[in-house]
């Protein structure tokens, strides 16, 4: 039997990969439980609860309640035989469980900011620091993440709590590193590779989904903005056919001088029937404008569209791509 396997069997601490898998299941459970709770409250009461506060309260009760309960674990951790205890092997008190839950939730929120990186690249630093705070549980001597080190908790195998000898061994191991709880210990190459792959898969999955969603949002906003100019375009075309000239003012056409979008942005009329579309919310769109200009061939009028500024052509309407 390989030495690494023998060593792993003798270690009382829970494997990082198992902890990560349980954490993902728990986060998903909190998310769906919050949705169910909000739906139930909405149907039973005359008000609709706000999503983020409900999600935060449910998460805090779920994690802190599980760690301070006789289970010493969340539902997912209990299912995969992981227990969260203090460094003496005893159940966490309510106060310590709450602090650990808050730190854990903040870390998860930090990791989930990966979903905002396509829109705000600077959040990559927040996501990276948050992942590192959890990742060190794979390389610290007692497999403690930052949230464990702060509240002096450890994630152990359930078998540790079933015998006095195993609990004593846990206490002895922790006592050996009492002088430096941040002591690092390099895991086997295979385990380190597995851990790294797991993290990369999660990060890539979140980022890929976020990028698709972000590009769809850009495309939807741009298409909506273009369609919103239809009233002004129709009025300009009717006026040009009647007078042979382009009106320079929306008021002459019976329209407002600046048409704002409810989700941020506006369009204005410029010289020669040109309509300029601007955006005021999403940073990437704030750096561009869409120019919609008429082209008259003597019988029919065609509206041409082009973007000024750097923007991927894939998010533009088909008729606005060069």
Structural write-up:
The protein is of the alpha+beta class and 322 residues long. The chain folds into two domains: 3-187, no CATH class; 218-320, Glycoprotein, Type 4 Pilin. The chain has helices at 3-10, 16-44, 51-68, 75-79, 94-112, 123-135, 146-151, 164-176, 189-228, 230-243, 283-286; strands at 82-86, 153-157, 259-260, 266-269, 275-278, 289-296, 301-308. The chain has a five-stranded antiparallel beta sheet with strand order 3-4-5-6-7, with helices on one face. A two-stranded antiparallel sheet has the order 1-2. The protein is elongated, with a radius of gyration of 29 Å.
Itemize the secondary structure elements and their pairings.
Blueprint: H1 3-10, H2 16-44, H3 51-68, H4 75-79, E1 82-86, H5 94-112, H6 123-135, H7 146-151, E2 153-157, H8 164-176, H9 189-228, H10 230-243, E3 259-260, E4 266-269, E5 275-278, H11 283-286, E6 289-296, E7 301-308
Antiparallel strand pairs: 1-2, 3-4, 4-5, 5-6, 6-7
Helix pairs in contact: 2-3, 3-5, 5-6
């Amino acid at each position: 039997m390989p030495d690494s396997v023998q060593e792993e069997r003798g270690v009382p601490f829970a494997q990082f990969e198992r902890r990560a898998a349980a954490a993902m299941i728990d986060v998903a459970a909190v998310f769906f439980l919050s949705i169910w709770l909000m739906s139930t409250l909405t149907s039973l009461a005359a008000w609709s609860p706000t999503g983020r506060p409900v999600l935060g309260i449910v998460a805090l009760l779920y994690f802190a309640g599980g760690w301070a309960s006789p289970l010493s674990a969340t539902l997912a951790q209990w299912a995969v035989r992981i227990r969260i205890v203090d460094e003496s092997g005893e159940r966490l008190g309510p106060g310590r469980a709450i602090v650990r839950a808050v730190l854990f939730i903040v870390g998860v929120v930090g990791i989930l900011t990966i979903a905002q990186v396509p829109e705000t690249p600077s959040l990559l630093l927040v996501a990276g620091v948050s992942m590192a705070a959890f990742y060190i549980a794979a390389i610290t001597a007692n497999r403690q993440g930052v949230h464990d080190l702060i509240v002096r908790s450890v994630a152990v195998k359930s078998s540790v709590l079933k015998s006095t000898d195993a609990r004593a061994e846990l206490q002895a191991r922790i006592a050996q590193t009492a002088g430096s709880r941040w002591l690092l210990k390099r895991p086997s190459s295979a385990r380190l590779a597995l851990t790294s792959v797991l993290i990369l898969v999660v990060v890539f999955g979140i980022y890929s989904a976020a990028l698709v969603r972000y590009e769809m949002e850009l495309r939807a906003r741009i298409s909506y903005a273009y369609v919103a100019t239809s009233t002004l375009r129709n009025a300009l075309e009717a006026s040009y056919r009647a007078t042979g000239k382009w009106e320079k003012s929306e008021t002459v056409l019976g329209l407002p001088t600046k048409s704002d979008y409810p989700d941020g942005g506006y369009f204005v009329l410029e010289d020669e029937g040109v309509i300029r579309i601007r955006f005021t919310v999403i940073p990437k769109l704030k750096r561009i404008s869409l120019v919609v200009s008429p082209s008259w061939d003597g019988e029919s009028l065609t509206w041409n569209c082009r973007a000024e500024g750097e923007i991927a052509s894939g998010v533009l309407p088909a008729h606005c791509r060069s």
